[in-house]
């Protein structure tokens, strides 16, 4: 019989779900190269390949057969062809722009381990989708709010979360969308560089974010009495500011966030928090021309920079800090530890801190390939994000479970069965 690729689920899966890959109909112990390809919406190509040897029966199951050295990864990695995807264009990060259409994954099996590839033996296509059937995507343009609300199937009400990304701006929807697949009402909120919002990160007014919180608290499909906040990078310190000054927030989860206000002045009523100072002379440029910016920000515990430390002790919520210990954007672990000290010094509950060795700055939903370096809007050149691909992939899988368990526990009162690894 001719070789063929067997996938489970066969035709379509959610992007954050595992995909079982096997090849049947090969010769006994036949050597082959497997290649995965995916194009983003701008047409940029991402690829990964691995060398394998079929079993004595001509079967090759990636869950049982280790990849041999020489490809994008080696060892027993059932999802390696997805997490090892790399852009053909340097410094390009995989993001999903339109969550209503799937990514198309192309899988190919070639004869032998040679370069260039041998004869094509089998190929298959698979859709990696973002919206589960029945999830509703609702564009929100109420007052000043520029956002998209994702509502799970069913009548609700559902536990509500506001999701914020970082300095990239715009309105990324993919994390909010994937999270809503698990029973949360999630508002992906834009805060600059989108439609009629400010074009640059100069200053932010918490009143805008308060409008979004009130929108969620008043929504008939959102289960009260409070909501959750989820923020990555700059979105993390905005979430801490929201939790510190605004009412109605029960749980705040930060992915590599800062406890100091960064990058722009923050205003709320008569309060002004200046941005943390920085020194661009501390940027290190490597041989490859990539900037290492991890030491650029000043210490928020020293001198006038103490004014940028967000008063998170005012918050009436529980905190979860997700930390990539190889974050090269800024000192996420230091920020989490200092936030914890500050909370406890004011008699508040100790936050949960989950640290991942070998994980970089962009801890995304599961199976997004690690982005080691890409353009930084504020620095104006490519910067290192840190991370080691396999460890980073494992961190993304675990962090995704941690985040859901945290919100389930604090927004619904139902404990979840996940246990974290510290």
From TrEMBL:
GO biological process, one term: fatty acid metabolic process
Residue ranges of domain Acyl-CoA thioester hydrolase/bile acid-CoA amino acid N-acetyltransferase in the record: 16-142
Active site annotation, chain numbering: 233 (charge relay system), 327 (charge relay system), 361 (charge relay system)
Lineage per the UniProt record: Eukaryota, Metazoa, Chordata, Craniata, Vertebrata
Highest rank taxon of the organism: Eukaryota
Residue ranges annotated for the BAAT/Acyl-CoA thioester hydrolase C-terminal domain, each copy included: 205-412
Protein name, per record: ACOT1 thioesterase
Keywords, alphabetical: Fatty acid metabolism, Lipid metabolism
SUPFAM superfamilies, per the entry: alpha/beta-Hydrolases
Encoding gene (name): Acot1_1
Molecular function GO labels: fatty acyl-CoA hydrolase activity
Native source species: Climacteris rufus (rufous treecreeper)
Entry similarity comment: Belongs to the C/M/P thioester hydrolase family.
